[in-house]
Specification:
Elements lengths: L16 E2 L9 H9 L7 E4 L7 H7 L8 E10 L2 E10 L6 H9 L5 E2 L2 H8 L16 E5 L8 E4 L5 E5 L10 E4 L5
Parallel strand pairs: 4-6, 6-9
Antiparallel strand pairs: 1-2, 2-8, 3-4, 3-5, 7-8
Pfam families: tRNA_edit (PF04073)
Organism: Nocardioides simplex
Protein name: YbaK/prolyl-tRNA synthetase associated region
């Protein structure tokens, strides 16, 4: 691996690489989204052990506080036969308020997490690496208001073998992002 560039975000001694120059380390839909996102030049990618892709395992292995990570959960519900899907991005030390806030925002009767097989198939990403970057444009992107306040958010890359390091403020500018106070509790 090449040496980290000084202006890229850094993570616990891992080698930070410019994401735009290492699109082979992210899932195909993530690569396409990064290439089209004006803020992507500030995003780094780091390779990790795929066994450490889950937030708690990674936090423990790299001595990161849970509040340094952000998780993306996919939620769906129906109203009058129309399905509504949203990606909810919340700090890793919180949980999306699916039964109240997400339900209200999607205006659905009963929201539920997208089944694993469907989430993987429709996102084009691996389980444990699903990220808000590169999801289908028809899906809403709900971002908890605390995420843009993060100096650096560690999120999935679409693959289990790497993570993206994203300045939190970029999520307020992400294509289609809706910053929501109280999305997570």
């Amino acid at each position: 691996m090449s040496a980290a560039l000084p202006d890229l975000p850094q993570l616990a001694g891992l080698t930070s690489l410019p994401a735009l120059e290492h699109l082979d380390l992210v899932a195909a839909p993530v690569a396409a989204a990064l290439a089209a996102w004006p803020g992507a030049a500030a995003i780094a990618v780091v390779e990790i052990d795929p066994e450490l892709a889950d937030t708690a395992a990674m936090s423990a292995a790299y001595d990161l506080p849970m509040e340094a990570g952000a998780n993306c959960v996919l939620v769906a519900g129906k109203r009058e036969g129309e399905e509504r899907v949203a990606a909810c991005l919340v700090r890793a030390d919180t949980r999306a308020d699916v039964n109240h806030t997400v339900k209200r925002l999607l205006d659905v009767r009963k929201p539920s997490f997208l089944p694993l097989e469907r989430a993987v198939a429709e996102s084009g990403m691996e389980y444990g690496g699903i990220t808000p970057v590169g999801l289908p444009a028809a899906w809403r992107l709900l971002v908890d208001a605390r995420v843009p306040e993060m100096e650096l958010a560690v999120i999935g890359s679409g693959l289990r073998r790497s993570k993206l390091l994203v300045p939190g403020s970029l999520f307020a500018q992400a294509p289609g992002a809706e910053v929501v106070a109280g999305l997570a509790g």
